[in-house]
Design brief:
- The structure is a single chain.
- The protein is built from 19 helices and 20 strands.
- With 633 residues, it is of the alpha+beta class.
- Strands 1, 2, 3, 4, 5 and 6 form a six-stranded antiparallel β-sheet that branches.
- Strand 9 and strand 10 form a beta hairpin.
C-alpha cells in the first residue's frame, strides 16, 4: 500500500507546467504533441496485431508482439507527460519509463539475434523472381499435362479402334487392360476379366508352357518379342471355342512394377483361307492332270521330260517323239518368235522369274502355225537351283480375233466407269473446296479437279439460292457433327438445266476429333424421279381402268389379306372398300360354306402355281346369290 501511495503521491514536487511558466502556447504545444504521439503509438500495435491475425504465415510473430508492447509503453509515457503538467506524479512517470526500458531492452535482445535470419529472408525482388519462376514451372507442367492428356487420348483412341486384341498384365499375369478388340475377339467384357488371371484366355494344354514363356521373357533383357517364333498360338473364347492367333509381347518397367502388353491377332480367317488354299491346290493338281490344256514339263537343261496326251492333241507329236529333245532340236517355235522364247527360257533357267505367261506361235507336226498361250512355273531347290519348269499350253488361235474385240470392250467398259454420274467433293471449315473427282469437276464446268481447289459454291456457275441451301446443309453437318444421308437437292447445271441430286454428307475430323471439314457425294437422280412420277401417273391410270372395269377384281396376298378391290365389286355388293381392306381374310365376307370352298380353291392355286378357273354360285354376307365365273392367278 505504501508503494502504491508513493507512486501516486505528488509529494513536494511542483507540476511540470511551472517549468513552462504556464505559458498557454507552450503548454498547448506539449499537450498536442504528446497526445498525437500517444495516439499514433496506440494505433500502430493495433495494426500490427491485426496483420499477424490475418497473415499467420509471417515469420517470427513474437517480435511483432514485443514491438507492440514496446510502442504501447512508449505511448503511456507521453500520456503521463501530459498529466505531469498539472499533477506531479513523477514516481508513476518513472515507473512507466522503467517498464518501457525493460520492454525495450528485451525487444532489442530478441531482435538482434534475429537480424541474420531476417536478412536471409528473400527480398521482394527475389520473391517476384521466384514467383515468376514458379509460374513458368506451372505453365510448363500444364503444357506437359496437356500433352500427356492428348497422348493418353490418342492412345485411348488407338486402343478403342484397334481390331487386334491388346491386353496388359502384371508380373503375376493378372489382366490390367482389355481393349474393345479383345472384347470382340474373346467374347468377354473388360469388367469380366480385369484383375483375373490370363489363364482364363488360354486352352488348358497351353497354360503351363505360356506361364514359363512369360516368366522367361520377364527375366530376359528383351523389351519386345514375337511370340511362338511366328508360329500360331491358340486362344480360348468365352464360349469355350479355341482359335488360332499370332501375338507379340512387350514389357515396360515402371519403378517397382513390370507391365507386360500383348497384341493378339485372330488369324482364324487366315488359317481357314490357307486350308481352303491347300484344298484348292489339291483340286488344281487333280484338274491339271485331267485338264484339256497341254502339259509339258522341262528339266533344268530345258529338255522335254513330260508330254501330256492333250499336248499330243494340240501339236500332233507323240510323247516318245519329243521326250529328251530341246526346243532348238526340232521345228517347234515359229522363227520370228525364237528370240522372245529364247529370252524367256534363259530367265526361267537363271531363276530371274518364278513364273510367267507368254503368247507365241508354234508349229504342229503337220507344219501348221498355231497361236499358243503358255503358262510357265519354275520349281527350285533349297539353294535356288532350277529343278524343272512346268508349262501349261493352250491353243488360242481361234481366240486372237476375239481378244482384239475384248480389248475394245474393256476400253469401253473403262470409259463407262470413268463417266459414272456419281460425284465426290470435300471442303474445309470455310466451305472452300479442297478437292473433287472428275465427275464433279466436269459438272461444275472445270477441266480437272485441281481447278476447283480454293473456290466456294458461290464461285461456281448456277443458282445462288441453291448454293445457300448447300452451304446451310454443310454447316448443319459440321456444327452438329452428324452425317446426313440421301437428301434430295436441286441443281442448276452450267447449261441451265434443272437436275435433282441424291446427296450424302459426313463431317471430316482431325486427330483430336475436331470437325475440320465436310465430305460429300451425290448422284443425279433426275431420271429416277421423273420415272417415279411417270410410274405414279401410270398407277393412277391403271387404278382408274381397274375401278371402272365391268368385271369384279379382287387382289389378295398368300394369306387371303385383301390388297386391292375395284369399285365395280364394291358397288355391286354394296360393301365399301374399307370393309374389304380391314378383314384379315376376304373369306370372312362369305358364309361359312362358301368361305371354306374359296379357301380350298385359293390353296389349290397357290400350291399348283397355275391359274384357276371355275363357274360357281356364291352367296355373300348380304344373303344374295350371284352366279360368277371365277378366274384366279
Amino acid at each position: 500500500m505504501n508503494f502504491l501511495s508513493k507512486i501516486w503521491s505528488t509529494g513536494n514536487f511542483i507540476p511540470h507546467g511551472h517549468c513552462y511558466l504556464w505559458q498557454p502556447e507552450l503548454v498547448s504545444l506539449h499537450i498536442l504533441s504528446d497526445g498525437l504521439i500517444a495516439l499514433s503509438y496506440f494505433s500502430i500495435p493495433i495494426a500490427l496485431v491485426d496483420l499477424i491475425r490475418q497473415r499467420k504465415d509471417l515469420p517470427y510473430p513474437e517480435i511483432f508482439f514485443l514491438f507492440s508492447a514496446f510502442i504501447v509503453s512508449c505511448g503511456l509515457t507521453h500520456l503521463i507527460e501530459i498529466l505531469t503538467l498539472w499533477h506531479p506524479i513523477y514516481w508513476l512517470s518513472g515507473l512507466v519509463k522503467a517498464i518501457t526500458a525493460i520492454i525495450s531492452l528485451f525487444t532489442a535482445t530478441t531482435l538482434i539475434p534475429l537480424i541474420p535470419n531476417l536478412l536471409a529472408l528473400p527480398s521482394s525482388a527475389k520473391l517476384e523472381a521466384m514467383n515468376e519462376k514458379l509460374k513458368a514451372e506451372i505453365r510448363e507442367r500444364q503444357l506437359i499435362q496437356e500433352a500427356l492428356e492428348a497422348s493418353e487420348k490418342r492412345l485411348s483412341g488407338i486402343l478403342e479402334i484397334a481390331q487386334n486384341a491388346i491386353i496388359s498384365v502384371d508380373e503375376n499375369q493378372n489382366i490390367s487392360m482389355f481393349n474393345q478388340g479383345a472384347e470382340k475377339i474373346f467374347g468377354y467384357q473388360a469388367s469380366e476379366v480385369l484383375g483375373k488371371s490370363l489363364n482364363l484366355l488360354l486352352p488348358e494344354r497351353n497354360k503351363a508352357n505360356h506361364q514359363n514363356y512369360v516368366r522367361q521373357f520377364c527375366a530376359d533383357s528383351e523389351v519386345s518379342r514375337l511370340m511362338a517364333n511366328r508360329r500360331q498360338i491358340w486362344g480360348l473364347r468365352k464360349d469355350g471355342t479355341e482359335f488360332p492367333a499370332t501375338a507379340s509381347i512387350s514389357k515396360l518397367e515402371l519403378q517397382k512394377e513390370t507391365i507386360l502388353t500383348a497384341i493378339i491377332n485372330d488369324i482364324s480367317e487366315e488359317v481357314e483361307a490357307e486350308n481352303r488354299l491347300k484344298t484348292a491346290l489339291q483340286q488344281l493338281n487333280f484338274h491339271v492332270e485331267n485338264t484339256p490344256l497341254g502339259l509339258i514339263e522341262w528339266n533344268s537343261e530345258f529338255r522335254v521330260q513330260r508330254w501330256s496326251q492333250q499336248a499330243e492333241k494340240i501339236f500332233a507329236w507323240q510323247a516318245e517323239e519329243v521326250i529328251g529333245l530341246q526346243v532348238s532340236e526340232w521345228e517347234f517355235i515359229f522363227p520370228e518368235d525364237l528370240e522372245k522364247v529364247g529370252s524367256i527360257i534363259k530367265q526361267l533357267q537363271e531363276g530371274n522369274i518364278p513364273r510367267n505367261t507368254c503368247l507365241n506361235r508354234n508349229y504342229t507336226k503337220e507344219g501348221k502355225v498355231i497361236n499358243c498361250e503358255w503358262y510357265n512355273s519354275v520349281s527350285l531347290d533349297e539353294k535356288g537351283n532350277l529343278i524343272s519348269v512346268l508349262s501349261l499350253v493352250l491353243d488360242v488361235s481361234e481366240r486372237i480375233k476375239a481378244q482384239v474385240e475384248l480389248q475394245l470392250s474393256q476400253q469401253k467398259l473403262q470409259l463407262i466407269i470413268n463417266t459414272i454420274p456419281q460425284s465426290i467433293f470435300w471442303k474445309d471449315r470455310n466451305l472452300e473446296y479442297q478437292g473433287c473427282n472428275y465427275s464433279f469437276a466436269h459438272r461444275a464446268g472445270f477441266k480437272s479437279p485441281a481447278e476447283i481447289v480454293g473456290k466456294t459454291d458461290y464461285d461456281l456457275p448456277g443458282n445462288q439460292e441453291y448454293f445457300e441451301h448447300y452451304c446451310r446443309i454443310d454447316r448443319q453437318v459440321m456444327e452438329s457433327n452428324t452425317p446426313i444421308y440421301q437428301i434430295i437437292e436441286p441443281q442448276l447445271t452450267i447449261q441451265g438445266q434443272q437436275r435433282w441430286l441424291q446427296t450424302s454428307k459426313v463431317p471430316i475430323h482431325n486427330q483430336d476429333g475436331k470437325v475440320i471439314g465436310i465430305l460429300g457425294s451425290y448422284e443425279d437422280i433426275t431420271e429416277r424421279i421423273e420415272a417415279q412420277q411417270k410410274l405414279d401417273r401410270q398407277q393412277k391410270t391403271l387404278r382408274a381402268i381397274l375401278d371402272n372395269a365391268p368385271i369384279w377384281i379382287l387382289m389378295t396376298d398368300v394369306n387371303g389379306k385383301v390388297k386391292f378391290v375395284n369399285n365395280t365389286l364394291c358397288e355391286n355388293l354394296g360393301i365399301p372398300e374399307s370393309r374389304f381392306l380391314e378383314v384379315e381374310q376376304y373369306h370372312q365376307l362369305f358364309p361359312k360354306k362358301e368361305a371354306e370352298n374359296l379357301h380350298q380353291f385359293d390353296k389349290n392355286c397357290w400350291e399348283n402355281n397355275l391359274p384357276c378357273h371355275s363357274e360357281e354360285t356364291f352367296k355373300f354376307i348380304d344373303g344374295k346369290e350371284h352366279n360368277l365365273e371365277v378366274i384366279k392367278r
